[in-house]
Design brief:
8% strand; six-stranded parallel beta sheet
Length: 326
């Protein structure tokens, strides 16, 4: 039975259990350890444990934690967490900066090349599957978009808003719509441009062909039962509000037109500031939209069979195995 909100399976998940995995030992190659999972699954805490156990550093692959103005609403690592392990790509750009997945792939690979000179292992963690895939597998080559097509999509966004973009993407490419961040207009815009330009789905250009990297990659995804994850999401939203999310959103409200701020946790509070809903309703919407985002993350991760799914009970065993293998 699949939960409609979090997409987490009850009973048989169809995923390979921990015991079926073996971590190969290799002395000839450097290793990137990827720790992924749905929002609120504890990726940051586990990544820090791994980094400390292996005396290494962490690369963030959370596209919203890149922005230095967005801290509470993105659940960015705290100062205490940052002090426990060196993090890269956390608060390294501003919300007004143009920075896409291609920029991240380039920067991350350049950084890894330097880090592997002094570390045998590096940890990467985050909930942005597209950014993780770019580093691990490379980016598919997309067709060039003619100016009039680009303008057509921009007009759709201006005239119909995000809802029009969502409806059109679902119509033209339902497979991609099921896994994309549906609240991110830039992702939808890119997909629609390709659809209009070629008459084909955006999915058809995402070949899945893997670029061979010169380092090994071990990928782990954190699995929680449906009820437990929902509870973690709700508690985290409540904690964000206690920590000052309302004030953080208010300080960013004048720049709400920026794509970076079209993000769960901020856009709902912007609607409250606009008088479109009560504060309690805005907070509840944050929880609902976060659960929906978790479902899309799980859908994305399940498509990648290279992930080893682990539960909180497997953390110590995984750490032990990583120590022995690296």
């Amino acid at each position: 039975m699949r939960n409609a909100e979090c997409g987490i399976m009850r009973g048989d998940t169809g995923l390979r259990p921990y015991s079926e995995f073996r971590i190969p030992h290799s002395e000839s190659k450097k290793t990137l350890i990827v720790i992924a999972g749905p929002t609120a699954s504890g990726k940051t805490a586990f990544a820090i444990k791994v980094a400390k156990a292996l005396s290494t550093v962490i690369l963030s692959a959370d596209s919203r934690q890149f922005y230095k103005e967005m801290s509470i609403g993105t659940a960015a690592p705290t100062e205490e967490e940052l002090s426990q392990a060196k993090h890269y790509f956390v608060h390294h750009i501003s919300i007004g900066d143009k920075y896409d997945v291609a920029d991240y792939e380039r920067d991350a690979l350049q950084l890894l090349d330097e880090l592997f000179k002094t570390h045998n292992v590096v940890v990467m963690t985050g909930g942005s599957g597209l950014f993780i895939d770019a580093v691990c597998n490379g980016i598919d080559e997309m067709p060039d978009i003619e100016p009039e097509i680009r303008q057509k999509v921009e007009n759709l966004l201006k005239e119909g808003g995000l809802k029009a973009m969502q409806d059109e993407t679902q119509r033209l490419d339902p497979e991609y719509f099921a896994i994309v961040d549906q609240q991110n207009p830039r992702r939808l815009q890119r997909a629609l441009e390709v659809c209009y330009q070629t008459g084909k789905t955006f999915t058809s250009f995402r070949s899945g062909n893997t670029v061979k990297r010169d380092f090994e990659i071990k990928k782990y995804a954190l699995l929680w039962k449906r009820e437990a994850l929902i509870e973690r999401i709700d508690k985290r939203v409540d904690l964000m509000m206690e920590q000052g999310l309302l004030e953080e959103a208010k300080s960013l409200y004048p720049k709400r037109h920026l794509n970076a701020l079209n993000t769960v946790g901020y856009k709902e509070l912007f609607a409250y500031f606009d008088g479109k809903c009560k504060l309690e309703e805005a907070v509840e919407l944050i929880k609902i939209h976060t659960r929906q985002y978790a479902k899309r993350q799980m859908t994305w991760l399940r498509k990648d069979t290279s992930y080893q799914w682990i539960t909180v009970d497997d953390f110590d065993k995984t750490l032990s195995a990583l120590r022995q293998a690296t």
